[in-house]
Structure formats: structure tokens, C-alpha cells
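User: My instructor asked us to take a sequence, write out its structure as C-alpha cells, and then describe one feature of it. I'm not sure where to start. Here is the sequence I was given:
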Amino acid sequence: MMFEFDLTELVIAAVYIVFAGVIIPIGRAVWQWIKTKTTNDKLMAAISEAEGVAFNAVADLQNSLVDGLKAAAPDGKLTPEQIAEVSREAFNKFMASISKGALDTLKNHKENLADYVKGLIEAQLERLKLARKAAASK
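Assistant: Let's start with the prediction itself. The C-alpha cells for your sequence are:
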């Protein structure tokens, strides 16, 4: 029994094999890369926004609350209760100020969002404290 092949059929079969074996996997890989890049960009934007919001919350409280509390204290220092109050106020201000999109992105990527936000606020408080010490020593 003799098989006859039409050149057109052979070309179509070869194109199908190349398409199925090469083009489709490359397309899938590119699509996965685009999804990952979009997710990473979205997460980086949310983290950047969170850092800015934390900085603004701390700076605002420093001007509106902390300076007054320190001035009223005999030793010019905050009590542990006052520090806890400032931290709560900063957390509340942060949560009220961050965009819903950034908050949703952070919730999807951070295991414990409250701890993450508290860490951001503590870092900003420390940063502000160091900047004040540096300015005072000049």
C-alpha cells in the first residue's frame, strides 16, 4: 500500500506542529510574565504609597500632637501610655488615608497587615527622631 502525500498537507502539518510546540508555549510564557510583572508593579506601587502615607501620618502627628505632649511633660519626654496613644493615632490616620486599591493589594500580599502598618509607622517615627537628633546636633 502506497501513501501519497500532498505537499500542501505536509506544510499545514508542519506549521501546526511548530505552532503547537513553539508558539503556544511562548505565548503562555509571555502571558504569565505580563501577569507577574503587573502584580509586582501593583505591589510596589502599593508599598510606595504605604510608605508615603505612614510618613505623612507620623509627621502630621508630630506637629499636631507629639510636640504638645512633650511640651506639657516636665521632663519633655512622652510616657509609654502617650507613645501607645500616638501609635494608635498614627495607625488610624494611616488606615483613613491610604487608598482602597493600595490597601487591597497589601491585604492580598501581607500575611498580617496590621503588623506591617505598625512596622512602617515605627520606622517613620525612628526616622523622624534620628532626623531631629541630627538637626539638633548641628
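For the description part of your assignment, you could build on this observation: The first helix runs from residue 7 to 72. Try explaining in your own words what that tells you about the chain.
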